Amino acid sequence: MRDFQRPGRSPVIAGNGMAATSHPLATAAAIDVLKSGGNAVDAAVAASAVLTVVEPHMTGIGGDCFVILVEPDGSVHGLNGSGRAPAGASAEAYRARGLTDIPEYGPLSITVPGAIKAWETLLARFGTRGFDALFADAIRYAEEGYPVHARVAWDWARQVDALSADEGGSIHYLVDGRSPAAGARHRQPALGATLRAIAAKGSRAFYEGPIAAEMAAVVQAQGGYLAEEDLAAVAADWVTPISTRYRGYDVLEIPPNGQGITALIMLNLMRELGVEHLPPDSAERYHLEIEAGRIAYSVLHREVSDPATMKVAVETVLADGFTRQLARQFDPARRNPAVAFPKNPSSDTVYLSVVDRDRRAVSFINSTYDAFGSRVVTPVSGIALQNRGACFNLIEGHPNEIGPRKRPLHTIIPAMAMKDGRAFASFGVMGGDFQPMGHAHVFSNLVDHGMDPQAAIDHPRLFWGEDGVLDAEAGISPTVREGMRARGHQLRDAARPHGGGQMIVIDEENGFLVGGSDPRKDGCAMGW
């Protein structure tokens, strides 16, 4: 039970359906779909479409999408909607330009957008409504305008210089050369027209014809490789989620090329090392999680890639023997200097969760990777193209070395927890490379420390920056900071909060849904 004299909010509890997203307008759109008879899949797509308009720096139709869906009968489905590198994007072509790393932004960072194909694939199998009905709110907000919320405005203001350098970015995402202020009305009529075309003709309107031709032409004019043939060849793939057993729950993640495997490695280490016995707000607990994270992320950056090029089996990495081997690197008294700090690029993402009255649970994530993706925006169609190619590398022979039609190592990961063969918690924590750490921390809050979904998400976070220094959110106490420094960690105040998250728990005993939404964003959970 929270302290009602302190700032905060209670979890939302309802019986007929619930949605939790990072923006109130998206949550409202999802609830409207549920109340009118649509299912959780329909509601999730409607919410995601709204988010591409009202959180344009965080997500977009020029990005990718992953989904975990659990049907009322307990059947589990995973969808990988990540796009591939263009056919012309060979490592040799990049090296011929004198590059040793993939550029973080610009035309050479662009991969094929997979989101629209993923939405269509998901709806075709499990939805009850089409794009024409589900895009209505998104189109209205794009054409008539929407209010810019506080966190959106704060993030947007940081991207003015990058947007000013791009023709489409200046046209569609700046107003008189400035980002819109909090509370201002912002319109995106070009994006509205693009959404109308997709609503009328399906994904073919996006991946073929004038819209696809413009995307390819804009990228190629700036020296990139994206071609119309790459867009026409897009596919979203049904996959079997991978899992681990943690404290009586089966925690599910999308398999590689996603980094969800990292969260499972972390949970295995936390289980092996007994994190549940440590007080939730103690230096001992944060030290264990940070060290387990560093170990798990080292495995990620060494081994994980497009599954076609991975050199180690997922089963090997998640095996108990491998976990025990990794756990030997943990010292409860000090930071292990032998474990490297992997480079963690910043990124921006939206995650949402929906559960309907039948207890169909959808864990859904959509992103253009960094803020406004590659910072290349199509002038006519208003599409911000993702920079997901920046997640590849140019290390010869590495499993994640860039290659034609290859999927990159991916940061965005939805999660789901099962109990006795039924969905228990649909959750996710956005925020680039922080996401596996966020999944492990939030789920541990829930099942190890008995927090409700809102409290589990609210709880203070700690994560490392690119230089290895730990960025401590304001809620990390002086006692924890002192204890971490005593164990050899360097800390500083975090300049920005770590990610954001949503969670919906299915309370079978009482017949209710219990939801929480991260105060680090503008969003909310709502039920009916």
TrEMBL record:
GO terms for molecular function: transferase activity. InterPro entries: GGT-like_enzyme, GGT_lsub, GGT_ssub_C, Ntn_hydrolases_N. It holds the Pfam family G_glu_transpept. The keyword Transferase applies. Keywords: Transferase. SUPFAM superfamilies: N-terminal nucleophile aminohydrolases (Ntn hydrolases) (SSF56235). PANTHER family: GAMMA-GLUTAMYLTRANSPEPTIDASE (AFU_ORTHOLOGUE AFUA_4G13580). This is Gamma-glutamyltransferase 2. Threonine peptidase. MEROPS family T03. It comes from Mesorhizobium australicum.
